[in-house]
Amino acid sequence: MTDSAPPLEEPTVPEGSLFLNRELSWLDFNDRVFAESEDARNPLLERVRFLSITASNLDEFYSKRIGWLKRVAHSDPLTRTVDDLTVLDQLRLVLDRTQAARTRMERHWRDRLCPDLAAHGVHFSSYEALDPAAQARLHEYFLSDVFPVLTPLVVDPAHPFPFISGGSLSLALSIRDRRSGRDLFARIKVPPNRPRLIDAGEGRFVWLEDLIASHLDLLFPGVEVTDSQAIRVLRSVDLDTPDEESDDLLELMESELRRRRFASAVSFEGTHALSPATHALLIEELEIHESDIVTLEGPLGLADLTQIANLPLPDLAFPPFVPAVPSIFREAEGASLFDAIRGQDILVHHPYESFDATVARFVQQAAVDPGVLAIKHTMYRTSPDSPILQSLIDASGRGKQVAVLVELSARLDEANNIEWARRLEEAGVHVAYGNPHLKIHSKISLVVREEASGVTLYGHIGTGNYNSRTARVYTDFGLLTADPRICSDLVMVFNFLTGLSEHPDTRMLLLAPANLRSELERRVRREIDHARAGRAARIVFKMNALEDAAFTTLLYEASQAGVDVELIVRGICRLRAGLPGLSDRVRVTSIIGRFLEHARVYYFHNDGAPEYFVGSADLMKRNLDERIEVLTPINDPALRHQLDGFLALQLTDDRQSWTLHDARWTRDEASAEEGVHARLLALASGSA
């Protein structure tokens, strides 16, 4: 900001109202996902899939955020966040919203999707409603495949209350003790390793819990069962970072996972009202509040509807697609991929372009290339069968120096990461872990190769995880480069991660928590200066979330100064768009559809000398200040043109995009049939 800059116009709303609430904004996002399930323009099975995703998202929200809200509300209920709501007020608002969402999802399944599926020959039946032949088949299936797995547990003086794990489905029973006449509580865990929906033939499906409930006489022979219902418990995954020091971070994280298994319950779902005795027992044993008990008609756990969404009914699903292989990779078949990367920077776009044929191939070729001396790699989330990590194990076996930075505390992926860390260590890979207070969220890989001209460095910097499975449904960018300036920065970043040093002074990369916040802020202020000098000023940010209060305030300042601010935000957005005198030059859109928008792109007009960055960081406080994040500049004019086209498609989409007006998200229901995802698929396949 220059000294001669005119004073900013005062905001027209109170300071606390400048920011939308984080939790409610996330629930708005999940409502947008749910709207895809309601949208009849989507194929029927995809509508079922969107309902499954909505339910899964809500379960995760409960475990992560409601657990946090309850913990803070218990210790200091009057704590206020930047939106000026107390934590206790937020908890009440969130519980109201989530209860309404559960009811809405349940009714949508029962009243809309089930009849539509029935019209296409997919039916849901109780066991009792099946014809005798189908009952006989399912009875045999129960005896052979389900009954041996079940363990009926009763609560009495000789049998303590059973532990009910988070997310598990159970049958809660009242059984009558014939001797005393008392009703006792019993529980049967519905086995998660059996299909939730049992194919009864002729397009009919029976819920597993209903099949079990229909055979209680085999589980409790000679015992009167007076009540049976499905129940589900969700437990918090929000645990305090341990204060104790440990010589082995891996062992410490394993201990944390054991603690989490027994974390407090945050929700109890049942399919009808509990008896007074069972109600009192569950409140005591689960240590839950009355407000945590939710009665639904069922079925519980709608996330399991993925099984229906995956039915082989192609007419009811999105058309299949095969990710394209960019021409430069096809031309490099049988030759060294490193020659292609050394010749030019390459920007790949997943899932439209194949992850396995580009990024995974980059690591695979490095593993077997005799000229490669070392490979360095970060791992935040990955698949259990990761081809990249298998390649790194292979590289270590071939005598190459391999170092992998494993983030053990990637929420809900800790167990998988611990398993991979042990496998990598056993294979001789140098494994280091993220600091519990500074997660490694960056997606970077570095290859050191000896060539005729000397040692050459090759790098990959991505916006998404090195995960072949999610790369088929998450939209992400990845830069493959041999630019010595960028790769030299990568060397410094990896040395910082594996060694003990101050934050590296990178020349090209923006690195959090060292300089990423300050460098992004500097560029926004540069646009403000251009606007105040009468020059064109524009920024376009695409990200998963805008949560950081300071950066939100800076974007308000940019709008007031005359900067055109265009934000493409998938999820949380704390900024209120379009408010006169405050954010009337800010446009916020959200793209929801077939793929999960995951790429982060930052564009600055810079008076006609534009700058572009891609990488792992969202505009969240945790990303800017509390994690290792990397953004890389995109310098090649052709790749900048590629990003321009991509951003233009996102900003002009009139099928999948939602627009934020103040605090309300809307979209044009009469919009075009083809959205940005279909257009990018067509472009990638060359058919556009």
Short description:
With 688 residues, the chain is an alpha/beta fold. The protein is built from 20 helices and 27 strands.
Structural category: alpha/beta
Into which percentage range does the β-strand content fall? Answer: 15-25%
Global shape:
globular
Low-confidence stretches: 1-13, 241-246
Fraction of residues in H or I helices: 25-40%
Largest sheet: 10 strands, mixed
The number of helical elements comes to: 20
The overall average pLDDT, rounded, is 91
Q: How many E strands?
A: 27
Terminal CA distance reads 44 Å
Q: Over the alpha carbons, how many angstroms does the gyration radius reach? A: 27 Å
Secondary structure layout:
Blueprint: H1 22-38, H2 44-75, H3 87-119, E1 123-124, H4 132-146, E2 153-154, E3 169-176, E4 183-189, E5 197-201, E6 204-207, H5 208-213, H6 216-219, E7 224-235, H7 249-261, E8 265-270, H8 276-286, E9 293-295, H9 306-309, H10 327-331, H11 337-343, E10 346-350, H12 356-368, E11 372-379, H13 387-397, E12 401-406, H14 414-426, E13 430-433, E14 439-440, E15 443-451, E16 454-462, E17 474-481, H15 484-498, E18 510-512, H16 516-532, E19 538-543, H17 549-561, E20 564-569, E21 586-591, E22 596-597, E23 601-604, E24 611-615, H18 621-625, E25 627-633, H19 637-652, E26 657-661, E27 664-666, H20 676-685
Helix pairs in contact: 1-2, 1-3, 2-3, 7-14, 12-13, 16-17
